[in-house]
Every structure is written in structure tokens, then in C-alpha cells.
Specification:
- The chain is mainly α and 136 residues long.
- The protein has two domains: 20-76, no CATH class; 91-131, no CATH class.
- The protein is 59% helix and 0% strand.
- The protein contains six helices and no strands.
- The chain is elongated, with a radius of gyration of 40 Å.
């Protein structure tokens, strides 16, 4: 056993690969492989097909289920993720009106507060607002 690894040992280059990405198969590729798999009649043909293409038997099982559901007959793959909510054509109008309602309510509350303040000031100074309104 050679314990002197640092002196005469050949240096091995280690290649660091980028993060592995999941393989993606096109609809046409899936259809072609399923057609070839359905045509395999002799023992070992299916295994040879899977080895040649670098596939697992679970790929075939999943693709066959998708074909049975009719997902492989479409022209384009289905989009993944949550479905987009339909846009309400009146949503912009509703938002505008709600903002206007909030603005008008705030204005009305300010006006009521001013009226209350005027009443309190009149009571402080001893003025009767109802009699002065009739005089004008």
C-alpha cells in the first residue's frame, strides 16, 4: 500500500456540473415512444427500447395513463399551476366608485365635525344659532 500519495500520485480532474435539471419530453416524443412500446411483441424488446432511450418503465406507465385520459392527443401541453381568474370587465369601475365613496364619506365626516364644533362654539359664546339664521 502506497502511503506516499502526494508525491507521485496522478492528479485527477474533478468536473463539477451545474445543478441537474429535470428532463422534459415533448408530446410528439411521448407518442412515438408509446407507439414503439405498443409494437414490442418479443420478450426483451421493451427493455431494449427503454435502455436505448434512457427511460424508466414508470415513464411508460405515466404516459399511458395520460394517453388514456386524452392528454397526449392535444396539440400543446397543458399549463401547470393554478388557473388564472377571469378578469371582471367592471372591476375598474367598481374600484373607482369605491374610492369615490370613501372620499365622500371622509368629507361628510369632516363636515359633521365642523358643524358640531360650530354648535359648541355658539354654546360657549351664548349665541343661539337658530335665531341668527332667521334674521338674515
Amino acid at each position: 500500500m502506497d502511503t506516499n500519495l502526494g508525491v507521485n500520485a496522478p492528479l485527477r480532474e474533478v468536473e463539477v456540473l451545474a445543478k441537474a435539471q429535470r428532463r422534459r419530453f415533448t408530446l410528439e416524443y411521448k407518442r412515438r415512444i408509446l407507439q414503439e412500446a405498443d409494437g414490442c411483441t418479443k420478450p426483451g424488446d421493451l427493455g431494449a427500447l427503454l435502455r436505448r432511450e434512457g427511460l424508466y418503465s414508470s415513464h411508460l406507465a405515466t404516459w399511458r395513463q395520460a394517453r388514456a385520459r386524452g392528454e397526449l392527443s392535444g396539440l400543446a401541453p397543458k399549463k401547470r399551476g393554478p388557473k388564472a381568474k377571469p378578469v371582471d370587465p367592471n372591476a375598474k369601475q367598481i374600484l373607482r366608485l369605491e374610492r369615490e365613496i370613501r372620499r365622500l364619506r371622509a368629507r361628510a365626516e369632516r363636515a359633521e365635525a365642523l358643524v358640531e364644533l360650530q354648535k359648541k362654539m355658539a354654546a360657549l359664546f351664548g349665541d343661539d344659532l337658530s335665531s341668527s339664521e332667521g334674521e338674515s
